[in-house]
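Justification of computing resources. Each target in the renewal requires a structure prediction run like the one illustrated here; the chain below, 343 residues long, is used simply to show the kind of job we budget for.
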Amino acid sequence: MKRNLFAVMTVLLVLIGLPAGLFGYQAWRTGQLAWAAGVRVVDIVARSPEQGGFAPDHLVLKAGEPVRLRISSPDVVHGLNIPGLGVDVKEILPGRVVEVDIKPEKPGRYAFACTRWCSIDHWRMRGVIEVKADAAHPAAQETQTAPLYQKLGVNLDAVWPMDGPRPAQTPSAERAAAASGGLPESLLDPSQRVATAPADAFRQLRADPAHSQLGDGEIWDQVAWAWLHDVKPETLSMAGSLYSRDCAACHGPQGKGDGPAGRNLPGMQKMDATGDGASPPAGPADFTDPARMLNASDVVLQGKILRGGMGTGMPEFGSLYTDDELWAMVQYIRTFLFQPAGK
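Resulting structure tokens:
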């Protein structure tokens, strides 16, 4: 019996202990080499959000300091994206270490996030790198520009109107391409249209004598054309990937507000469809709901993505997305109700 036990322990040592020892030695050796080269080594462990997420999730670095990030995962495959520092690690395999060298020159705060679906709470997996200024790298003077919704005086927390005209079928930019009538520049130019809700655009076109020969369905097709005629397929493809990665967990793959993570979203008790305190929690927005979405302008949608839900549990994406990505997400969200050209 003792001999058998000894044999089992020997096998376990070979199968588990030896690889672990080699892994530990490799990690130590890498750290020693980096230290000898004057590079600071920072270890980051990526765990599923339920197990704590990134550890640490707040790093303080010096501007101009060469740093080697050593990222590992003990559970599932993760990714790491630090947009402000140009870091995009596609996969961090369990039991492996991914090394990334950075040298942040500009003081400031840089958000980072997991980019691989690791659990239903994947979207919570975030962190911040704080880069401190010094004499050689002084902090830049703050030149932050107010977001568009503030410039236009739009209250993102106001209760959206839920009434108004609704299409009988899915509006199609493709059908509108062959329809007559023409559209005013105020609807074709995104910079002018940004504060207009699709329902208001429908009312405007319906009241215009130039469109009197068109039925309501054709008017809605014109509205879809106004919003989506100049959107490139590659833009929608890129935004679709971001949506799947960051939004589907709560809003659902089809945008119906039925994602698994949305059922237990922190702040649900604060979410009220009417604002009167009497309605049950509305949950994550249903992007396929005409009453909600046709009364929302692009600036409202962009502001929500940029700023987050403010107490609802929805995080902000302004620190993770570029401006182009923010607007691409708005255009993608529109496709849950409008059929783009070419589809």
